[in-house]
Every structure is written in structure tokens, then in C-alpha cells.
């Protein structure tokens, strides 16, 4: 009968939905930066596992949750995951998809709204771990800090080390076979794909109209 608890329990499934979304996006888009983002999430989880097994701080109510994969709770993996995802996405929105001089108001607005939504979801998922007695406040707090630091470090690593290598990686025979592409030089991939698709559709429509005459 605890509606808040049920809602927070569903929200705590956020990492699973995000992973499924990433796998789906990679299958259909096959873009190197997206693959790198997923790689960062995997590394973030590995760091969380390492820290947990070094500190070995127990969960607040071990007997209340017999289905958890580990008895250690410091730091919270959910909190670390969500804050990595939110902070990296924030950096991607404002630094990778950088504005141009003719940026429109709506373009800026949706970035601000999306950033607020990302932070809100991260806060709610973090809070859910305490509310549902999976973690203490300190475990959630340190998870958020660890995830944020990892996000900044991975974003810097991707931008400074991996991005210059993307053109060469995209040119590998195996990359060409699997249609893996590099869009790192395109400031706003959504706008680019929209304009290219619209232009191609008009071109094909024009050719079709010519054949029918």
C-alpha cells in the first residue's frame, strides 16, 4: 500500500532501462561516441565493485533484502551509475553539442530542461535507495560523488584521447563491415541527421516526380 515506495522502486530500475536503451541505440546508430559512453558506464560499474570490496561496509538492513547481489553498500552502485550518466550527459549537451552563433532560443531551452530532468532523476533514484533501506545516506552521497568524478574523467578521456582516434577506428575494415561511424566533428548530430534526411527525401521525391512525367 506504500505508493511512494512502489514509485521509487520503479525509478530504481532506471540503470537497467538506460543500459537497454544504450544497447538499442548502438545497434541502430553504431556511433563511436555512444559506444564510448557505454564503455564508461561499464568502467564506472567496475570501479564501484572494486571500491565496495575494498571498503566492505555493510548495507543498513541486510536481512530486509535477500536478493541483492552483494552485501556491501559503500558506495551505492545505483547512485554512482545515475550520477555518472547525468553528469556525462550534461557535459555532452553543453560541451560536445556546442552552440553556434545562430543558436535558437528553443535549442537552448531543451538543453536546460533536459539537464534539469537528468539531475532530478538522479536525485530521485539516489533517494529511493535510502527510502527502500538498501543504503545509508553516506553510501548514496559517496556513490554520487564517485559517479560524478568518473563522469568528468571519462568525458575528458573520451574528448582528449579517444575522439582523435575515432576517424582511424571508423576506417578499420571491421568498422566498415559493421557500419560503425564517427560523428565527432558534427556539432549537433540531431540537426545534421534531420537536415540530411530532409534533403535526401526531397531529392528522391523530385526524381520520382520526374520519372512519372
From TrEMBL:
Name this protein carries in UniProt: Dolichyldiphosphatase
InterPro entries: Dolichyldiphosphatase_PAP2 (IPR039667), PAP2/HPO (IPR000326), PAP2/HPO_sf (IPR036938)
This enzyme's EC code(s): 3.6.1.43
Entry's Gene Ontology cellular component terms: endoplasmic reticulum membrane
Catalysed reaction equations from the record: a di-trans,poly-cis-dolichyl diphosphate + H2O = a di-trans,poly-cis-dolichyl phosphate + phosphate + H(+)
Any GO BP: protein N-linked glycosylation
Domain Phosphatidic acid phosphatase type 2/haloperoxidase positions: 34-155
Function recorded in the entry: Required for efficient N-glycosylation. Necessary for maintaining optimal levels of dolichol-linked oligosaccharides. Hydrolyzes dolichyl pyrophosphate at a very high rate and dolichyl monophosphate at a much lower rate. Does not act on phosphatidate.
Biological source species: Vidua macroura
Amino acid at each position: 500500500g506504500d505508493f511512494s515506495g512502489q514509485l521509487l522502486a520503479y525509478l530504481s530500475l532506471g540503470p537497467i532501462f538506460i543500459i537497454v536503451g544504450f544497447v538499442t541505440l548502438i545497434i541502430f546508430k553504431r556511433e563511436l561516441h555512444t559506444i564510448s559512453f557505454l564503455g564508461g558506464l561499464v568502467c564506472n560499474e567496475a570501479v564501484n565493485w572494486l571500491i565496495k570490496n575494498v571498503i566492505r561496509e555493510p548495507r543498513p538492513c541486510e536481512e530486509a533484502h535477500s536478493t541483492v547481489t552483494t552485501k556491501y553498500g559503500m558506495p551505492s552502485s545505483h547512485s554512482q551509475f545515475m550520477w555518472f550518466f547525468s553528469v556525462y550527459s550534461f557535459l555532452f549537451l553543453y560541451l560536445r553539442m556546442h552552440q553556434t552563433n545562430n543558436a535558437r532560443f528553443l535549442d537552448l531551452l531543451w538543453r536546460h530542461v533536459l539537464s534539469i530532468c537528468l539531475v532530478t532523476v538522479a536525485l530521485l533514484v539516489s533517494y529511493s535507495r535510502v527510502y527502500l533501506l538498501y543504503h545509508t545516506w553516506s553510501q548514496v552521497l559517496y556513490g554520487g560523488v564517485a559517479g560524478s568524478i568518473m563522469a568528468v574523467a571519462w568525458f575528458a578521456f573520451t574528448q582528449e584521447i579517444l575522439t582523435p582516434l575515432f576517424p582511424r577506428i571508423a576506417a578499420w575494415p571491421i568498422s566498415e563491415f559493421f557500419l560503425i561511424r564517427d560523428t565527432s566533428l558534427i556539432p549537433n548530430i540531431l540537426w545534421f541527421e534531420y537536415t540530411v534526411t530532409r534533403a535526401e527525401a526531397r531529392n528522391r521525391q523530385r526524381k520520382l516526380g520526374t520519372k512519372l512525367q
